Amino acid sequence: MVMTARELDPRVQAFLADGPKRLLIDGAWVEAASGRTFATLDPATGERLAEVAEGDATDIDRAVKAARRAFDEGPWSTMTPAERSRLIWRLADLIEERSEVLAQLETLDNGKPLAVARRDDLGGTVDYFRYYAGWPTKVEGATVPVSVANTFAYTLRQPVGVCGQIIPWNYPLMMAAWKVAPALAAGCTIVLKPAEQTPLSALLLGELCLEAGIPAGVVNVVTGYGETAGAALAAHPAVDKIAFTGSTEVGRLILRAASQSNLKKVSLELGGKSPNIVFADADLSQAREGAAGGIFYNMGQDCTAGSRVFVEGSIYDDVAQFIADHAKGLTVGSGLDAATDIGPLVSQEQVDRVLGYMQLGPTEGARVLSGGGRAQGAGLDRGFFVQPTVLADARNDMRVAQEEIFGPVVTVIPFRDVEDVIRQGNDIAYGLGAGVWTRDLAKAHRVAAAIRAGTVWVNTYGPTDPALPFGGFKASGHGREMGFEAIHLYTEVKSVWVNLGEG
Ligand code: NAI
Ligand code: MG
Q1: Are 230 and 353 members of one domain?
Q2: What is the pTM of this model?
Q3: Ligand 1 atom at minimum distance from 233 CA
Q4: Nearest C-alpha to atom 10 of ligand 1 is from which residue?
Q5: Pairing with 499, which of 77, 339, 342, 369 sits 20 to 30 Å away (CA)?
Q6: How far apart are CA 229 and CA 231, in angstroms?
């Protein structure tokens, strides 16, 4: 049963009905200076959900100035760590309290199944803020035994300053959490630029920041397009750091903008084309499920999607057929329908991009074992729906195996032995995630060490945890989020020399 507009939480309806959404700058809700707005769509219907302020360079400048003031003059930077900790924890409580509203907004704006939004996106967001709420009181420096007579030396770990955070549409709220929580814990101030496809949950997050008592100007939210608002943030001379998650192409633009402005610090979490490797000695029922789940989760719109499944020759046909049958059994539909496994893609642009790869596969010699096009059926014609697709007999040098598709499309590639799969697995520009399925402990650790990727999952695929570092090798990015690594991203280390000598 699809939830009807009337069954949506009344607070969601009120949020959507409340006129064009505005920008959060310096603790106040304001229109874009240009007065312009843009529509955010429901990808399940293609219809407009809400109008949202179209912030551009002028609004980014206003927001950066507010964040600068809040950082330079306080009270955020002069608050005790314990006070900051309490405010972040309070924010987590408010998100938890409002989690049904946020989950429904996420499903409406992004398309993902509501049960998944509730469990993973909201659950993950609350955990993430709670984890970082504990950090402000633990950001320590060190005393260092330098070899200079009569000298006392120590390090201070201090907030990096004003942070521009540009986030994508695949996990809109969770990506905001991954960026905002550690920056707040470190004592930074923020200008958050959500993706134009999915601005709603970040705006509600901004509202909750104010409600939690986080001072004006500490968290600013500027909605708008990447080419205008995003680019202005990346180029702004008063921004000390940019944190970005999105495409490799835009990652390059951001590095260039940083190098041509004030050399601001940059951390990048970019795409992937992750190998998910199934050895013949794996627990097969577990491995096959893991291979299918690794690609179809979140409609494949996941930076660590296991989009290259490598299968050892002797079990290749069995595993490829299993994934294809699994794909055929998935229910495609609205994220508000409780029966849905596969919601719509986020936008028509993504549909076009993904369909292009579905058509390219067979021309490169891959065999379509399931799916291969737009999803047909009652209620699917208006939305951005595609079929979960399996491309078998793929080779690692095909474009469908080398380029990030970011949809429910998997290439299944055969391999001979450990050496062969390590070579093929690493023969790619990216290095974000990898999976290994085997019962052989030595083989598992050997492959885990040899694959050049930021995360390797052994006999599981895809979990993340706020305590465990996450990020990429190679073209998958710079820096690590999560854990203490994210505190590193949002702090600078200062060395202090003190001469204790007299005269
Ligand atoms: P994108 O990289 O253009 O968008 C991500 C964010 O960057 C959005 O907030 C966008 O407004 C902003 N942005 C765009 N152009 C910018 C610019 N010139 N300066 C500053 N910010 C800018 O990604 P897009 O176009 O939505 O998706 C294209 C492909 O990127 C996807 O098919 C997928 O392959 C990849 N992608 C990867 C993600 C990941 O999690 N690593 C997330 C989203 C997309
Ligand atoms: Mg783009």
Answers
A1: no
A2: 0.97
A3: 20
A4: 226
A5: 77
A6: 6
Residue 172 beta carbon below 6 angstroms from any ligand 1 atom:
no
Q: Which atom of ligand 1 is nearest to the CA of 225?
A: 11
Which of the ligands is closest to the CA of residue 244? 1
pLDDT tens digit at each of 503 positions of the chain: 567 666 899 999 999 999 899 999 999 999 999 999 999 999 999 999 999 999 999 999 999 999 999 999 988 988 999 999 999 999 999 999 999 999 999 999 999 999 999 999 999 999 999 999 999 999 999 999 999 999 999 999 999 999 999 999 999 999 999 999 999 999 999 999 999 999 999 999 999 999 999 999 999 999 999 999 999 999 999 999 999 999 999 999 999 999 999 999 999 999 999 999 999 999 999 999 999 999 999 999 999 999 999 999 999 999 999 999 999 999 999 999 999 999 999 999 999 999 999 999 999 999 999 999 999 998 899 999 999 999 999 999 999 999 999 999 999 999 999 999 999 999 999 999 999 999 999 999 999 999 999 999 999 999 999 999 999 999 999 999 999 999 999 999 999 999 999 87
Same domain, 211 and 284: no
d(CA 44, CA 25): 31
Residue 254 neighbours by CB under 8 Å, 6+ apart? 166, 234, 242, 244, 266, 268
Measured distance CA(281)–CA(437) in Å, rounded:
8
Pick from 319, 245, 320: nearest CA to 472: 245
Tell me the residue range of the domain where 140 lies: 11-270+477-493
Backbone φ, ψ for residue 498 (5° rounding): -125, 120
Neighbours of 2 (CB within 10 A): 14
Ligand positioned closest to the Cα atom of 249: 1
Count of domains observed in the chain: 2
Going from the Cα of 253 to the center of ligand 2, the distance in angstroms, rounded, reads 11
Ligand nearest to the CA of 54: 1
Report how far apart, in Å, the C-alpha atoms of 117 and of each of 6, 123, 204, 330, 345 are.
20, 8, 15, 18, 15
- Is 498 part of any domain? no
Ligand 1 atom nearest 196 alpha carbon: 11
Q: For residue 75, is the peptide bond before it cis, meaning its omega torsion is within 30 degrees of 0?
A: yes
d(CA 234, CA 240): 10
Active site residues: 269, 303
> Does 438 contact ligand 1 (Cβ within 6 A)?
no
CB of 338 closer than 6 angstroms to any ligand 1 atom = no
The CATH number linked to 459 is: 3.40.309.10
Are residues 55 and 67 in contact, defined by beta-carbon separation less than 8 angstroms? no
CA 153 – ligand 2 centroid, Å: 47
